[in-house]
């Protein structure tokens, strides 16, 4: 075993051991609830006390209004939590309650879309809706009395997370490659894209080598994953596309006449166009684009091409009826005439769903043959989760991500 492989072996062995620790912590969270909350409260008190001392020192040294405000805030928070021991439990319960309600709404949306589109309603979605909604309601109404539900949520998450870490490490140790990861909770990953794009101006100064002006087509034994994040505005959850053999594959609710006002669901439309044109058009639409170029072997190339062919088995060409610059599809067609639009005869691709049958699902289907797999317990994988996954993959040993670039006009 050479030096690099030996180093990678120990890295993934450490990952497996950490996975065991995560599972142990998860079991501990579930079985020792009172001890966990007592330790958490002690740690919170210690944190607030040390923060108060630190901010007092910084105020005495720098004499600024900001440091004084931080010092006063830390003192007030310390006093509030000291005289109200259940407040921190209620705050945490509110956070986890909102998380559970959000997951319930995701499942509820799937049921609603099935009713509207006259599809078969999955009993599992109905069951999960009521379970998550019940959990959320109990935590929001009386968080302190139902705090054990938080232990179960966090404990179960840690157990699954540790299991995925162990499985991923074992795949690498015995097969030599692993790109299996588990997504962060959807509320966390969903908020990630705005923070990412807000760092662009500073990164342009600190790391200009990460930014490129010339857009390259993906040719040969490679596939590119593009993560798009709008520079400004409220709609900054992101979008994921695939670039392969010089073509772009982009799935979304692009038909303005057959989608909900909020674009949460609608008719699924696949855009197939010239990769360079599409990225340029996207960038000029006030969007920052992050590109991850992935190396493929001959077998993976064959599987990816089969995956793409399978996606279009029941697709048909959709001719957008209007030539009007106020419509996205019309502007794109004018910018790059070779672009073609497709719709689908059957589910799941017939109906786009922001949280389930979305752009990330399409990317995940195409890329599974490379060994890439992102787990999300709620069934919701956001562009933010995929961005975090690719960033993690980029820095891992023997990464299949061989090139990275950012295209952005944000200043």
Summarize the structure.
The chain has 411 residues and is α+β, with helices and mostly antiparallel strands. The chain has 14 helices and twelve strands. The strands form three sheets. It has an eight-stranded antiparallel beta sheet. A two-stranded parallel ribbon has the order 1-11.
Structural description of this entry:
- The chain is α+β, with helices and mostly antiparallel strands and 411 residues long.
- Helices cover 55% and strands 16% of the residues.
- The chain contains 14 helices and 12 strands.
- It has an 8-stranded antiparallel β-sheet with strand order 8-9-6-4-3-2-7-12.
- The chain is globular and about 65 Å long.
- The mean pLDDT is 81.
């Amino acid at each position: 075993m050479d030096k690099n492989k030996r180093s990678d072996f120990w890295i993934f062995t450490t990952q497996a051991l950490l996975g065991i620790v995560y599972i142990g912590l998860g079991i501990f969270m579930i079985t020792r609830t009172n001890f966990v909350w007592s330790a958490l409260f002690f740690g919170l008190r210690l944190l607030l006390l040390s923060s108060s001392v630190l901010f007092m020192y910084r105020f005495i040294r720098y004499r600024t209004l900001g440091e004084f405000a931080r010092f006063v805030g830390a003192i007030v928070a310390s006093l509030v939590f000291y005289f109200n021991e259940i407040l921190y439990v209620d705050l945490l319960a509110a956070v986890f309650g909102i998380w559970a309600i959000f997951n319930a709404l995701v499942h509820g949306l799937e049921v609603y879309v099935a009713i509207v589109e006259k599809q078969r309603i999955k009993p599992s979605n109905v069951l999960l809706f009521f379970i998550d909604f019940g959990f959320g309601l109990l935590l929001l109404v009386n968080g302190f009395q139902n705090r054990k539900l938080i232990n179960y949520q966090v404990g179960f998450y840690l157990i699954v997370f540790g299991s995925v870490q162990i499985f991923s490490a074992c795949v690498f140790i015995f097969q030599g490659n692993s790109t299996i990861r588990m997504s962060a909770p959807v509320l966390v990953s969903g908020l990630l894209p705005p923070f990412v794009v807000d760092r662009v101006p500073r990164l342009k100064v600190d790391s200009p080598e990460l930014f490129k002006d010339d857009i390259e087509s993906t040719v040969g034994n490679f596939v590119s994953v593009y993560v798009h994040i709008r520079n400004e505005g409220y709609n900054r959850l992101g979008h994921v596309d695939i670039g392969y053999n010089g073509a772009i594959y982009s799935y979304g609710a692009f038909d303005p006449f057959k989608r909900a006002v909020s674009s949460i669901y609608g008719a699924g439309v696949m855009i197939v166009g010239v990769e360079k044109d599409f990225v340029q058009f996207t960038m000029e639409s006030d969007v920052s684009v992050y590109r991850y170029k992935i190396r493929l072997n001959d077998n993976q190339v064959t599987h990816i091409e089969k995956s793409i062919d399978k996606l279009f088995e029941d697709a048909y060409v959709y001719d957008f009826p209007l030539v009007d610059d106020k419509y996205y599809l019309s502007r794109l067609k004018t910018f790059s005439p070779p672009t073609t639009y497709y719709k689908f005869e059957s589910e799941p691709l017939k109906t786009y769903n922001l949280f389930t049958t979305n752009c990330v699902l399409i990317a995940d289907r195409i890329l599974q043959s490379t060994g890439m797999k992102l787990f999300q317990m709620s069934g919701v994988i956001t562009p933010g989760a995929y961005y975090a996954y690719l960033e993690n993959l980029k820095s891992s040993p023997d990464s299949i991500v061989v090139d990275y670039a950012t295209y952005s006009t944000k200043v």
